[in-house]
Design brief:
The protein is an alpha+beta fold. It has a domain of about 180 residues. Helices cover about 35% and strands about 20% of the residues. The protein has a five-stranded antiparallel β-sheet with strand order 3-4-5-7-6. A five-stranded antiparallel β-sheet has the order 9-10-8-11-12.
């Protein structure tokens, strides 16, 4: 593997590459996970061995992944929380140009990422979890994942719902007592919501991070966050649970580009709620939280979204030639690439305009 940037070059003869993604691995344009043999700092990303190359195949103008992660980065960094950095790169496989990808750091722990503080109490542990409805295919319940709640978005056996499974990411190995601590902690958070005990929930969970995380997910109508690709972590056993960082926006914005070229997307879902998130639905049912959400959205998230949407148009104009070149590689079945890109661009910003207006009616209270 070789990485070049601004005249600098890094080569690793022992690095590894594999195809990434649960469903996106079946797309024509593959995403990749890369692993260097030693920790490196590339693309101004945190020093690490592991990085991801996002293909953004479902979005011909390559804006949804970028905008979502930029907004996430802004809202987290301004609150002194970790969020992945995203950067466009050209990718070559041997001597074949594969177009534009997004280099993004792998979600993980460490001083430059999610810093977990080791507990002096051996019965407890800080942790990083991922909500993953497919955890049972890789692990053993009660050892590296547990089940808590259900979702109606994913349905693998035809009964209308599937279990929400929480997979332990870090530490990789814990004692039985520590695992029970983790499961009980998440269970206590959920129980507080079920009992509509906002005070107890706020004593366990960073409320601002919680609201930021789910407002962004709902703004993009991110389907995966209903039961997959959802991270949450407890940085210190004496601290509070943080939902995030945000991740995986392939299936967002009502999922346009359904595995094949389509220029006639609907805007019907741009002005509705998308609350199929277990914790978020329970939170919204509590009296008085509307005021918390409105204040956080109006004073914090709304300015970030407005800024990044404006920057997104400038970004697209700056990279338009490379994005068009990428589209020519991966959507060769489309006769008029310019028409494809123009319609996708117009649809995307129409969608976000309607979504912003809808959010203003929901959350901007006088």
């Amino acid at each position: 593997m070789k990485y070049e940037d601004k005249g600098t070059e890094f080569t690793d003869d022992l690095g590894k590459v594999r195809i990434r993604g649960t469903s996106s691995r079946w797309f024509k344009k593959k995403g990749y996970k890369i692993k260097f043999s030693t920790k490196v700092s590339i693309g101004d990303l945190p020093k690490s061995k592991k990085f991801n190359l996002l293909a953004s195949y479902m979005d011909p103008i390559m804006l949804r992944d970028y905008l979502a992660m930029q907004i996430s980065y802004d809202m987290n960094v301004l609150s002194n929380r970790y969020s992945p950095t995203i950067k466009p790169v050209k990718v070559y496989l041997d001597d074949t140009y594969l177009g534009i990808y997004y280099l993004i750091d792998d979600i993980g722990t460490g001083k430059e990422k999610i810093n977990l503080v080791e507990s002096e109490d051996e019965s407890k542990t800080s942790f990083l979890l991922e909500m993953d409805t497919l955890a049972h295919k890789e692990g053993v319940e009660g050892i590296n994942y547990f089940v808590l709640g259900t979702t109606d978005v994913f349905d693998y056996d035809g009964d209308g719902y599937t279990d929400l499974e929480y997979k332990l990411d870090t530490p990789e190995e814990v004692s039985e007592t520590q695992f029970q601590f983790i499961e009980n902690y998440i269970g206590s958070c959920r129980d507080a919501l079920i009992k509509k005990d906002a005070a107890s929930f706020a004593s366990l969970v960073d409320i601002n991070a919680f609201i930021d995380f789910f407002l962004l997910a709902e703004f993009f109508r991110n389907t995966d966050l209903a039961g997959r690709s959802t991270y949450l972590y407890l940085p210190d056993v004496n601290g509070k649970l943080i939902f995030g960082p945000s991740w995986d926006f392939d299936y967002s914005c009502s999922r346009p580009y359904q595995l094949g070229p389509n220029q006639d997307y609907s805007l019907d879902n741009a002005t509705d709620r998308f609350t199929h998130y277990d914790f978020w639905e329970l939170f919204l049912a509590i009296d008085g939280v509307d005021e918390l959400i409105s204040r956080r959205y109006t004073n914090y998230l709304k300015p970030i979204i407005e800024y990044e949407l404006q920057e997104g148009q400038k970004y697209y104009n700056f990279y338009s030639d490379l994005i068009r070149e990428n589209a020519g590689i991966w959507y060769e079945e489309i006769d008029d690439i310019d028409d494809l890109l123009d319609k996708n661009f117009q649809w995307t910003f129409d969608y976000f305009s309607l979504r912003s207006e809808f959010y203003d009616t929901l959350y901007c209270k006088e």
